[in-house]
Amino acid sequence: MKYQTSKLKERSLGFVAFFALMLFASCSNDFLDIGAEDRIDKTTFYQTDAELVNAINGVYAKQRIVFNHYGTYYLQDSRSDNAALNQQDQPERVASDVFQELTNNQEMLISWSQLYDVVNHANAIIANDREVEGNQELVKRIIGEAKFLRAYTYYQIVTTWGGVPLRLLPSEDFDNIVVGTSPESEVYEQIKADLDDAIEVLPATYGGGKGNEVGRATKYAALTLLGKVELQLGNKSDAETNLRQVLGHYQLLDNYADIYAAGNDNTQESIYEVSFDPAGNTGYSLPNWFIPNDEAIRLGIAAGGNPAQILQLFPTQSLMDEFEAGDLRAAATFSIALGDNDPYVSKFIDLAAASQGYNINMVLLRYSDVLLSLAEAIGENNEAYDLINQVRRRGFGFDPNTPNASVDIDMASPGTFQEKILHERRVEFAFEHQRWTDLKRLKTPEEVVQMMKDQLFEQEGKNYDVKTTDLLFPIPLLEIQISDGAVTQNPGY
């Protein structure tokens, strides 16, 4: 058992107060900036469409906090065979990397709290029953944006923890703070319901200007996420139906490295991304921890790198070996530090970055994901291989729409169709929070466990006890304590 029995009464009270007061955090007046947090009088808030715009901007800001925190990598990439963690790092981070975390792991609790903070702010908009003055079409659209953001966040939560408290109302006081565990199936049904509603009211594009900034959630973002959700559930026909509606509305960039080029935001390939902006003091600072400080100095990055030279995560040998000869995605994903010859993640490098952070957005949904997800949903046939080959051709520097015998694959190529899908997704989306959910979807639990055991042995030279129950993280102990048993622990912890 990994269960800790120590009493945490004082911290439990603080956790309850945190959720009870989250609703009153103020929202940014700008889509990209985070305003100072303060208490807002609920009796006077959300009375106009302009206030609702400010409110939804605050939800986007909360999502940015999630993706600018290293917890997103511990819950996904580090858990998988793509990333390793220096075993001299903080013990709770190391424990998560090797499937040994306790239920009171504070790094996990931070991520849990940040994710539910996004949910709670979205809930405050969705559950707002006040007659809002102004443009009613705008009001409907904003509620659709909130439902998309809530759905995306619950997708992160359910793929990480399984059955969890399904909070659908804002935590305004101590009376509604405790919500019991809902089965995983109910969480997924709510995600799908939110996305169905969002699809009905969200626009295909935004024209710019206050409240209509490019980068907000669109109809196609909701369709793409719904397709991925259905695929994760094994509903391939439904996934295909949704993903086909996105075909032709985006296109692959010519150069794979341009996806994360500094300042290259909301491109023709991008369907939804988390916005960062150094000019508004909301730059992407997390990549600093992926690069050794001496390497950052060598490259002339004013923001520097990891001063302790203990990287929060770095590419595994198996990931680096996965790239085929001539695949340009390798050089755009990782590099080797000249000082110590060690690999590091270079996918998000901004050579001009200073103290305000990197001028790089985190792309959560992009067109290559639609192509590969649709191929998976269709199953092995000529159309599916054409979709895969579009992604491969671009990866090797060729025109995605022109057949190329040197890189194209088909039914006769070595490996099963599942193996080909997994390979292409691994090299295409490395360090983009995809690999762990891909493995759990396309491999059996026993296969994933054996892969992780083999990976950890290669990485650390010793055997770790990994079980199928470890494929879900434990519910944070504090959440269970404050619920007085309404929230239940996952098996095996």
UniProtKB/TrEMBL annotation:
<dbReference type="GO" id="GO:0009279">
    <property type="term" value="C:cell outer membrane"/>
</dbReference>
<feature type="signal peptide">
    <location>
        <begin position="1"/>
        <end position="25"/>
    </location>
</feature>
<keyword id="KW-0472">Membrane</keyword>
<dbReference type="InterPro" id="IPR011990">
    <property type="entry name" value="TPR-like_helical_dom_sf"/>
</dbReference>
<comment type="similarity">
    <text>Belongs to the SusD family.</text>
</comment>
<keyword id="KW-0998">Cell outer membrane</keyword>
<feature type="domain" description="RagB/SusD">
    <location>
        <begin position="344"/>
        <end position="493"/>
    </location>
</feature>
<dbReference type="Pfam" id="PF07980">
    <property type="entry name" value="SusD_RagB"/>
</dbReference>
<dbReference type="InterPro" id="IPR012944">
    <property type="entry name" value="SusD_RagB_dom"/>
</dbReference>
<dbReference type="Pfam" id="PF14322">
    <property type="entry name" value="SusD-like_3"/>
</dbReference>
<dbReference type="InterPro" id="IPR033985">
    <property type="entry name" value="SusD-like_N"/>
</dbReference>
<protein>
    <submittedName>
        <fullName>RagB/SusD family nutrient uptake outer membrane protein</fullName>
    </submittedName>
</protein>
<keyword id="KW-0732">Signal</keyword>
<feature type="domain" description="SusD-like N-terminal">
    <location>
        <begin position="30"/>
        <end position="231"/>
    </location>
</feature>
